[in-house]
# Entry
Amino acid sequence: MTELSATPEGVLSNVEVDTVENLVIVGSGPAGYTAAIYAARANLSPLLITGFQDGGIPGGQLMTTTHVENFPGFPDGILGPELMDRCKAQALRWGTRLVEADAEAIDLSQRPFRITAEGRNIESQAVILATGASANRLHLPSEERFWSRGISACAICDGATPQFRNEELAVVGGGDSACEEAGYLTKYGSHVHLIVRGDKLRASAAMADRVLANPSITVQWNSQVVEASGSDTWMSGITLRDTSSGASRDLPVRGLFYAIGHTPNTRLVCGQLEVDAKGYLITRPGRPETSLEGVYAAGDVADAEWRQGITAAGSGCQAALAAERWLSHHGLAVTVQREAVEPGAVGEQRRTAVSDEANFDPDALWQKGGYALRKLYHDSKRPLLVVYTSPSCGPCHVLKPQLKRVLEELGGRAQGVEIDIEADQDIAVQAGVSGTPTVQLFFRKELQQQWKGVKQRSEFRQAIDALL
# Structure
């Protein structure tokens, strides 16, 4: 079969070796990365399939939050993407190996279990499912028409885009996520409407108090969004129906953000494991074991009630410990020998400095800011990838390393520039950016292709190769 060997960054490449993995963890986020940390420290050399698009992005739902204020150990809070960066770095430090792709199929009908990811077949003695849950949509009649043209499922990702600035905006939902996103959007919009189906908020008391005390937020009680309207280019309003009287009214808003719950990502194991009426994996009470021996569940894929980062992390710990004990009990664990008892320190993450006249490098693979964009656009003879990001955008966080890997693989035959749409608002407006991440490919001063959202690395590579 195919074993995957790690680069120094922990990302894997194909090597043909006849072997079976001890443990494969499907999904990242707090559950997946915590499971990986515990399994790696048990010398199991776990393989973690991060996910990419199907069911969410690497790092899970915390990649689409701003400040996480209730994760122990961070008294001043921490950005969700930064917390996931630290968890990932800790897992890699102890020997976790990553496949940065979606799991395409999981076959639990035979042992070892078989997982397909990025066209690779992987066999494993045990599996931990940490695939999380995906944001729900309203499925409005005009939803597809206005998707990324006023409607979004991620206020944290898209709220800073120019089209939403100083405009009236709306958030649908009554839980913690909806309250957090409403507060976040007040930094950009002129006013925020929180659309709530009932007559009270489901959010925690602290979050509800913040919303009700914020003069920039109006709660539209007993209201349901039934349609969106606007021009061919952008949404300009929504229609609300009163859930008590049935009366309809129009609300002029330029942005509509969904925060209406999630659906567990169990598609890959549908019909193979027991699930409840809502589709969540059923585990033994208080334990991570699923209905099939050797398969464990962690995080929101099996949690319909708590759905917190800390509970997901705790369940990841349980799943890894249970898997390690089961593997050892059945004599299936093949542990690794470490070159050093204590792995090296991770250190602080290096961030790209904004380029200016003093530090601009015409041959650098990756730079940041408007100065570098202008210089490379006019002077470079190579294809130029421009990625538009915002500081709190989790998907941007995921995509940038993928783009950098593409440029490294091309060995200098193409270059990249990152534009922060908050710092360079005029550039974002001129480029027509309506959400982050947005990637544009230029060659000889002409726009060749544009992508919105997170895409597979191969898409960018193929587009650049076609120009070379």
In short: Residues 1-5, 13-17 have pLDDT under 50 and may be disordered.
